[in-house]
Amino acid sequence: MHRHERILFKLGRFFIYLAIASPLVWYIKMLFPYQAPQIYLFQLATIAATIAYLFLNILNPQYRPRWNLLIGATTLYLVIQGLTLIGSIAPLNSFIGSADRMLGVFNLLHYYLFFMTLVGLFRSKDDVKRIIGFTLIIATLASFRYLVTIFDLFNHNIDIRFESVRVPFGNSSFFGNYLAVLMPLAFWLLLQSKKRTTRLWIIGYILLQSIVVLRLGSRAALLGILVASALYIAPFALKNRRVRLASLGAAALIGILAATLIINRDTHFVESRPILYKFANTTFNDDSNSTRIVLARVGWNAFKERPLFGWGHENIGFAFEKHYDPQFPTEQNAEVWTDRIHNNFLHILAVSGIVGLAGYLILLAAFCYAVRKVWLHKETREFAFLMGIFFIVYLIQVFFSFDSSGTLLPFYMALGLLGIYYAHLVPQSAKKTKPIFTNSLAIGTLAVTTFFFTIQPIKASYHGGNSLFFLPYHYEPFIQEIEALEASIPDYLPIKAGFYSVIAADAHAAAQITRQHPRIVKFENFLIPHMFDISSKHQTDIRLQHRIGVILKDRAFRNNIEAEPVIKYWEAFLPLSPNRQYVLIHLAELNSKFGDVDLALGITDKLIALQPELSAPHWLKGQILFNHGRTDEARQSFLAALKMGYNIEIFNRENVIVANLLSEVSEGLPYAIRIYQTAIGAEPENANYWANLAFLYGKDGQLQLARTHALRARELDPEHAEDIDAFLQQLDSRKIDTK
The whole model's pTM is what? Predict the structure, then answer.
């Protein structure tokens, strides 16, 4: 190998390792600081590795790709996804991707290049071990960073409410998916390791990541790890009686723990621990799974309308608008939205049609075929077995969710590792010609696209993120950063609207914190028309207009602007929005506060008439009636909503007031108890909640629970011990009377 070849070879491999290390990266002064830097680094490292590899091919043709079925299927999948841009209703949006996800065709191209470069630069089985070992080290460091964040080990005062986004990949579920699909690779390395220290490290890795997945609360990831462990142990259990008995004992213990958790899901111990409560309430009726079912219907309806090429990547928002399902679960009066179908097969069907799904299935089939070919050779059977487990765990993740950077990076890496093994089993044709023209053209194209679609968004994301550090008080530097964002990203990039949407949300939050700070009001006066201008230049979904309306409404509530123009805004927006319920709710709230209460009630009645199966309009009507002193009518509306299944499992302090109203009648007492149970789960140190729930339990005749909760209230609030002791005496007398 000549000197120039050796330099390019080492550079290419270095950048592949850097791409694998991308989950460790975050930068607080960027928009989406825990996701965007990781994706940008992956893109830049992959392009750098690819360019080094292309130059290497020019110098020495032996490094050209060894074409086989696996490479062909991966190439075909990318080509098919590129062809779906033809049928996309917003092609640029589908190509670039959204501002936060960035999972359009452009990013799929980078995963493809990552796969091709990995297969080209890494040829030996020792390389496979090194890559897997390095990946596990990266995953370990990522988990340690996550633990440092959530336990605030360095006293950074991390707000635990934002824990779900302060993790690698910017999402706890994505991180859980990532750890789950890497577990089979750890098992394979455990089989291959001869040194005792290495084996102990891998066992420690497996235990650490299992604990982290439990802490993340990702049910799909936990299921994947359990399945991977069971499949890994199965061959040993079949051969060894002790292993078999130990495995059965472990399975029985897990079953007993799961059953105990489910049986005790309504106890304070479980309710006050959100992660345990999430695992204990895994049913088709819980919020998460019921959302998935409704989304599946939306995705299926979207596919039926555009069956061939689908709606295009990152365009589910458009389909959701058109095929909005009123049964979509909502958190009180929150904005109803989604940009993904939570099943990857159905998601691909919706965004790329039957053509895209066919390409995906061909890719999965090629993976299975390559695993089978590797399995047929005894010396590589262990690797094939663990690759098969990897495939099953991956399918579990994408069945309950969708492909994200947390699954795509391990999947394309596994494709590459499998390709290294598979390449040794198929005949290879010698490459002698130097592809000078084609490789030079590819290098130039990659350089140009990287500048426009990676470098410029990085600069814009930096200026946008940096602008937020000047809020809420430093208006002029904030505007300067916004102007720098304007200069660094072209208008034709649809992610620009997404950047402004995030900045608007954060600035709006700053306005609420500062309570009508004049500079924030000045900022909002600047931003709102600017957002209108941005949204009009792009074929974007209507979330931006939604967000503008919410900002206007809250400004009216803070008396910064007159309410009448805001009401007119929402009235004009009504025919544009597919989610009429959402718009009418805002109109009812505005009219209730600033207009005629009878008009507000008329809007809620219209809501009920439009969608009689929904519970939210009844609840809103109850709130309006209650706020205007009509308590008896309000109680009836609240009860009507609850009987229709209105969700009170999400904590809201206003619901506690409603609980007190409901508890005045026997019919509402069980609902009042549930509301206080939820409140205690959210704020377990609130003595008032414990005391009030104790009273409700006593009123309901559940004396033992009343006593337990009263004792806890006294423990939390010793100053009111006398009042609680008096209540306990009443309980004792009631108990004697009962006997």
Answer: 0.77
